[in-house]
Amino acid sequence: MREEIDIIAVNDEVELYVEDVGPVDAPPIVVLHGGPGGSDYVLREGLEEELGEFRVIYFDQRGGGRSPALEAEPRLFTVDALVEDLEALREQLEIEQWGLLAHGFGAIPALEYARRFAPNTLSLGLIAPWVSFPALAKRLFRASLALRDLPAAPAPEDPMLALGEAFRLLEPKAIFDALMFPSEHGRMEYEWLSEGAGILGNDTPGQMFVYNGLWELDYTPHLLELRVQPVVMVGSLDGTSYPEQAETVADLSGGSLEVIEGAGHYPWIDQPAAFAQALQRFLEQLET
């Protein structure tokens, strides 16, 4: 299989770690990982077999994963900056049009790219999308109460207050794990893949996005402006995205919703066969 690994400069300040794999003349797909920060490593491990007939661009977003670190400057970590990186990368690779396949937080730059650069977007696939961080903060607050066996209560409207209360007595990872993983097996497999990558975490992207107001970010109003109808894929047991966020994206954008029964935030781990079937709708759009 063809594989080209490179560090590609997208402007005078930013370089991205890029893996360009598969037949060069096949329909191209760019894969956007979640985060902010992180790496495409786990996504490639999970998606590579299903995407084997396509040209796939895996890359680590600016300042994170295997991409060169950046200074902790807020101006470097915005949604607009991520979108501009994508368009610069497309131009550098001399790709005319491509499909976008995004997971979690990656849905926001993917949606904004498709909104701004619709002519360059063949199709849009969103796996377990996060598009409203105030809504996610409320989910985390409610989950923290349940994990402490406390009675249900309305979440504070201020997302930072909701998070502060949620994380006051519980580690953030414990709450996220409870919402994202329907089984210990799935959590352990994800952590085994993530830790096996040997990629040191870089907290700068996440810290700077939070500084820039990540938890007030709600992309929902812009969904009505999309000219590309996404395929939304979500696990029925993903407490971070289903049902509210995934259903809202599909409804407001005119897209389709593929619910993967028994899966959490990483459906290719929890229910690989059902996920592969859901992914086909996105792949079919690339070939039409």
Automatic annotation (TrEMBL):
Keywords on record: Aminopeptidase, Hydrolase, Protease
Name this polypeptide is given: Proline iminopeptidase
Family: Belongs to the peptidase S33 family.
Enzyme class of the recorded protein, top EC level: hydrolase
Record-level GO BP terms: proteolysis
The organism's place on the tree of life at top rank: Bacteria
Annotated ranges, domain AB hydrolase-1: 27-139
SUPFAM superfamilies assigned: alpha/beta-Hydrolases
InterPro entries, sorted: AB_hydrolase_1 (IPR000073), AB_hydrolase_fold (IPR029058), AB_hydrolase_sf (IPR050266), Peptidase_S33 (IPR002410)
One GO molecular-function entry: aminopeptidase activity
Enzyme Commission code(s) on record: 3.4.11.5
